[in-house]
Write a structure and sequence with these properties.
This protein is of the alpha+beta class. Helices cover about 30% and strands about 30% of the residues. It has one domain: 60s Ribosomal Protein L30, Chain: A. It comes from Candidatus Kirkpatrickella diaphorinae.
Length: about 160
């Protein structure tokens, strides 16, 4: 499955980035039992944010959706770094999305669908997950989106 998922990523014209290193006093992911909890990932591409700013402000919804996709690719990169390959992913249990937005913005779910849709496209039924999406006044580095995850893994 690891190679299949990476082939699916490439077929979509995307690429799996190198797993980002933590920038503060935390770890990128923690395994406890059969769960892999992945810290919030920003929409980094080649070490830089795909966009900066707020949805409902200077960031268009289409860019926000692409940022959510980039965040999810970074989540997958963390899973691969932690597990060695993606064959051990049994299920994506939960995604959490944080959308930096103007106070009147209400399309949080539409933005987070960028991550959710990609999860299902890459992992099939194993990618169907529970989810929370929250609007926030700001995110680290002025990122418009951040995504965290919980995966069930084979031991």
């Amino acid at each position: 499955m690891s190679l299949d998922i990476e082939k699916k990523i490439a077929a979509l014209g995307l690429s799996l980035p190198e797993a980002a290193k933590p920038v503060a006093n935390y770890v990128a992911c923690v395994q406890t039992g059969s769960l892999l909890i992945i810290s919030g990932q920003l929409p980094l591409e080649a070490g830089a944010l795909k966009a900066k700013g707020k949805l409902g402000g200077e960031v268009a919804e289409e860019i926000g959706i692409a940022c959510a996709q980039a965040c999810f690719l970074n989540v997958v990169a963390q899973a691969k770094a932690a597990l060695g390959n993606l064959e051990r992913v049994k299920r994506i249990v939960r995604l959490g999305g944080f959308i930096s937005c103007a106070p009147a913005f209400t399309n949080h779910a539409k933005i987070m669908n960028g991550a959710s849709d990609l999860a299902v496209e890459l992992f099939g039924e194993r990618g169907i997950h529970a989810r929370s999406t929250i609007g926030v006044p700001s995110l680290p580095l002025n990122a418009p989106v951040e995504v965290e995850a919980i995966f069930e893994i084979a031991l």
